[in-house]
Design brief:
165 residues, alpha+beta, Alpha-Beta Plaits, five-stranded antiparallel sheet, 4 helices
């Protein structure tokens, strides 16, 4: 017999996709943090940090895009709950050692389900926006390392990504 704790929650007993019913769960404080990066030519990074991109302020537009996307995760990802009232923050930082831009997103809510997808979506779309706004300068940019680094709250408690070797 399958251990109920290991059962896929987005499948019904017949294996069909379904929304998880969270209506009976009590609301708790929940938080998730995700990160990622986009590598690029040093000249592209310089143009972005100098504000010399032909499309405008890349980092500000990417930050807003990430926040907007995080708030809309439930519309973009099948079986992801809509979470009205979730707060999403995005930070983008130039890293000359990469070279490129590092992104971090934090999502928080007082609610019945976690905000991991909101944080991951925010980072992903922020980095895709950097790509879109800078692709005329550098089509070889690479998105990498998009991952959850922390989640807190709910029944499973706190989880922190172990350091990479």
């Amino acid at each position: 017999m399958t251990d109920p704790a290991n059962r896929l929650t987005h499948l019904d007993p017949d294996g069909r996709p379904r929304m998880v019913d969270v209506s009976g769960k009590g609301g708790t404080s929940r938080r998730a943090v995700a990160e990622g990066a986009i590598r690029m030519d040093p000249e592209t990074l310089s143009a972005i940090t100098r504000g010399a991109s032909p499309k405008g302020d890349v980092l500000q537009v990417a930050r807003i895009a990430g926040i907007q996307a995080g708030k809309r995760s439930g519309e973009l990802i099948p079986l992801c709950h809509l979470l009205p009232g979730a707060s999403v923050a995005v930070d983008l930082e130039a890293d000359p050692d990469l070279p490129g831009i590092r992104a971090m997103a934090e999502a928080t809510i007082q609610g019945q389900t976690g905000v991991e997808m909101e944080a991951l979506t925010a980072v992903s779309i922020a980095l895709l926006t950097v790509y879109d706004m800078a692709k005329a300068m550098d089509r070889g940019m690479v998105l990498e390392g998009i991952r959850l680094v922390l989640k807190e709250g709910g029944r499973s408690g706190k989880w922190v990504r172990a350091e990479d070797p």
